[in-house]
């Protein structure tokens, strides 16, 4: 308001114009709920999300009557007129959620929120369910917090607690104690056998009936619809098939708690059928395996032979078989078998010529605890492969033939043997095709005959070839000397000799005497037993010849032991030569037939056999078949079997078939009496033994047969006691083990596996039992008040047999029920400043729900701030009193917890909430909140209406009741009232105005801040505020920095400073990177108060990327309104972070000759490094381990050269590792491998394999093979070079030994 200046010219004249100051509300009041706890009881579970559970604020007509009655007479009427219209009647108050805020306008506008996921709340405070609610939660109660938030610029929040108690509705299906029950029953279990017990509880408390919904199509199972007991049907007897049954069992409630319909739940009962192991594995095709199994010789180990398969009629593990072999412990198996698939493969290479078949005993064992074994005995034939060439019986053939021998005369039979079989061993003969064809050989018989006249010849040599059916061949030399009719060779007494000897003929025994004489003047002859090439012709040597000087004959004697099973006959060729000037020779053949003697033991195929027989099997049951092999023939190889007696007496319970080896039972066995038997079986052949020390007894062998008695479930379990009794406290925890009962079963393994079940007496499913242990434990909380005693009937079952016992559980009463108050919250009120303490406020009451509890023994106590000081409680009656004068302005609401403890204060405790409101009287004057010093700021030249400051006062009285705290504001004057003459400054009341409601001071006319004001109820000082009118500037005009590429993120690059002439927040500066950093490698940290900025690394740098070697950054500094820029160059320095790399890293060179010259370059290896400067300078070297002898060298250009002579015979291939090292700090390395094979050069001569000491016998007609040592007649040589530069070798006799023609050599 402007002043009238004309009035100022009069002396002693003044005026006081009114100043209106509007007080603007400050959000300084916190929303307060009328109640600390709101409750809603009996909310049905089926309530929908559209149903309101607690309403919002009410109207004035619904005032709280209890509050009004607290004031007497006329004061009561005044209170009704003054009360804020936000209260409801007492019975509605608990259903109304409301809060108040003593501020005004938007600062007093409230919105309601809750963090509960189960409930939602409208902005006006109405609570709704957010989804389905559940009665079956803990204490049937929901408790959550509601917030009231005002709309001030800085909002304030008040909170309260809401409790919702639910009412039960049948909205939950029964719940099984398990989703899946697993149990078992024996396949031979009888009628009414208990299988399982299912248990379900209904959370709504309804009754339950049980039913098997599916999985029982064969009707083997029945269920007790009340108890949940599942048994096998009684009639007809159950027939269990398969491995398991899956029964789907339903539990349906009776809908007693009320609902749209009955509800049901489903559980699975998986009943495993325990198979009785009463079937042995059987090889159904065993005979076929015996007839057809064979494998080709010379095949590598692992060659497929046969896949056997055994069938076991049992189920599960009883019907699952594994395969194996049964053999002697000391023998190395020739075959191996896969235990799961039955595939038989070779374990080594076979040679049919050494052994033509193998006896194999295959076992199939089931996987039962007491396994049964099936066997299949077969012979695996070794098929022939043409891997042998024919062998002639003699090393060479020689014959003396008269010159007048007629054409067509057969004079010599050559014979060759082939160790192969069939067509591979069919030999045909041929002769070298030389003209004229004096001689020919019969291709089938081998007889050599005269084809053309030979009288004109003195000597004929030919080569005879034997070829088998597979085109393998060998040759022998035939030498025929043509003799003059008058010059006759010696004459043998017989053309051939035959003799029969037993195979056990001892060494040096003469077997035959032979004789030849010369028809010439000197009758003497020399004898020689020709060397053979095959066993039948004395190779190896089995016979030797000794001349008899007395009569000019010769004897053939046994040189080494004979073996009928190896070679049954011999054809020995003997040469007789006369002593004429031109010696002539004649030949004869000695046929030696070897007869069998009983020299082989009938060995069992295994030293220990294992078999099994089921207990209870009838007498005569076949248990096992043992088998032995005897290589002898006829009666010598005929085997009989018997059981040997021993002290254990096990043999008397079994008998054995003496011819076939089948073992049968002679009694019925009981495993529980004896579980295994050990038999000693003997094999005896059919004739007296030829082995030394047997004294006319036949050969024999023994083996052991371990026979296991397989268990049969023939014993029922038995509890140790017929009944048990135990006490347990009613407050024992869920899971507490009450008692462990156990039963014993005389069987073993799966037949003794017991399952425990509670069959009856378990009211409410309070107990459960560990099914495999028998431990009874608490499954639901006990309650003495509901049930004092349980008599549980417990079953132990092995799947077939069962036994019962009873367990009596006595529940020991405990004080487990806390006292309960009649209501969950108590409300009371008392007026402040009342005299005459103590003042009665309200009374609480509680009761003890324990049975037989003494209700008079309850003791009350008050807890919380103010208990025992401002308020007290009578511990017996529960009456609460205010014992001091209260001041509402100090505290308007008192909240307490009242405890009620039974057993005279020594037992359990219940609690309730007590809320006491203190009602207001007008006993406080308003007070300015900024007193004694109130300051405001205003910018110069501010226009009228500009907000200057808030002058806010408070009144400690209750703003929500009456006018005790309703305030109005005005300016009463200025501190400076003297300068009122013309031209003076305007007064405070001229320059400013105040809002009478809010206390807000604004500019009334143009003026300057900092004037002094007239005194008033509150003094306001107004100061000038700074305006942001200066731009910040960097202190440096140039900027350059260097940073290594390996600098870590957040590392400091440089620090910059700036200046700003403004002050306060206008001088707080922010730094940033605005250009030159497209990939955001940098960022700036601002230190606003110090006006500094630090440039830091945000992401890792990579010098090898060209665009990251130098950055031209534009940096920015800014205050709230202005900014300036600075260009900064950041150079990135290289770091050695790349190792040298070879491309390729593996180089395979073409082979080089081993005599390559030293200094020859073989390859150039070049590595590259992505770094720069010295970090990319590279030095090369060879890894010492790859070239330990220094045969190669590499220069610094990467050129690899030969440094020393190479030797292929020492190292055939070189693997050189080239190392490249850079010059960085620290240095890095890379490597490459060079593979250099060498070609052989013929630089090594042949060497004899050994030092030979040849021996030659005098007086022996030539040609004589010289034995070079005790074992060989051959000279062998080796060459260290490769095969191309090695054999074949040529052997010659030195020149000094050639002239006598005493020795010749032949290369083979």
From TrEMBL:
<keyword id="KW-0325">Glycoprotein</keyword>
<dbReference type="InterPro" id="IPR015919">
    <property type="entry name" value="Cadherin-like_sf"/>
</dbReference>
<keyword id="KW-1015">Disulfide bond</keyword>
<dbReference type="InterPro" id="IPR002126">
    <property type="entry name" value="Cadherin-like_dom"/>
</dbReference>
<dbReference type="GO" id="GO:0005886">
    <property type="term" value="C:plasma membrane"/>
</dbReference>
<dbReference type="InterPro" id="IPR050174">
    <property type="entry name" value="Protocadherin/Cadherin-CA"/>
</dbReference>
<dbReference type="GO" id="GO:0009653">
    <property type="term" value="P:anatomical structure morphogenesis"/>
</dbReference>
<feature type="domain" description="Cadherin">
    <location>
        <begin position="177"/>
        <end position="283"/>
    </location>
</feature>
<feature type="domain" description="Cadherin">
    <location>
        <begin position="96"/>
        <end position="176"/>
    </location>
</feature>
<dbReference type="GO" id="GO:0005509">
    <property type="term" value="F:calcium ion binding"/>
</dbReference>
<feature type="domain" description="Cadherin">
    <location>
        <begin position="720"/>
        <end position="821"/>
    </location>
</feature>
<feature type="domain" description="Cadherin">
    <location>
        <begin position="393"/>
        <end position="492"/>
    </location>
</feature>
<dbReference type="GO" id="GO:0007156">
    <property type="term" value="P:homophilic cell adhesion via plasma membrane adhesion molecules"/>
</dbReference>
<feature type="domain" description="Cadherin">
    <location>
        <begin position="938"/>
        <end position="1034"/>
    </location>
</feature>
<keyword id="KW-1133">Transmembrane helix</keyword>
<keyword id="KW-0472">Membrane</keyword>
<feature type="domain" description="Cadherin">
    <location>
        <begin position="822"/>
        <end position="928"/>
    </location>
</feature>
<dbReference type="Pfam" id="PF00028">
    <property type="entry name" value="Cadherin"/>
</dbReference>
<feature type="domain" description="Cadherin">
    <location>
        <begin position="287"/>
        <end position="392"/>
    </location>
</feature>
<keyword id="KW-0677">Repeat</keyword>
<feature type="domain" description="Cadherin">
    <location>
        <begin position="1152"/>
        <end position="1248"/>
    </location>
</feature>
<feature type="domain" description="Cadherin">
    <location>
        <begin position="1035"/>
        <end position="1142"/>
    </location>
</feature>
<keyword id="KW-0245">EGF-like domain</keyword>
<feature type="domain" description="Cadherin">
    <location>
        <begin position="605"/>
        <end position="719"/>
    </location>
</feature>
<keyword id="KW-0812">Transmembrane</keyword>
<dbReference type="InterPro" id="IPR020894">
    <property type="entry name" value="Cadherin_CS"/>
</dbReference>
<keyword id="KW-0106">Calcium</keyword>
<keyword id="KW-0732">Signal</keyword>
<protein>
    <recommendedName>
        <fullName>Cadherin domain-containing protein</fullName>
    </recommendedName>
</protein>
<feature type="domain" description="Cadherin">
    <location>
        <begin position="493"/>
        <end position="604"/>
    </location>
</feature>
<keyword id="KW-0130">Cell adhesion</keyword>
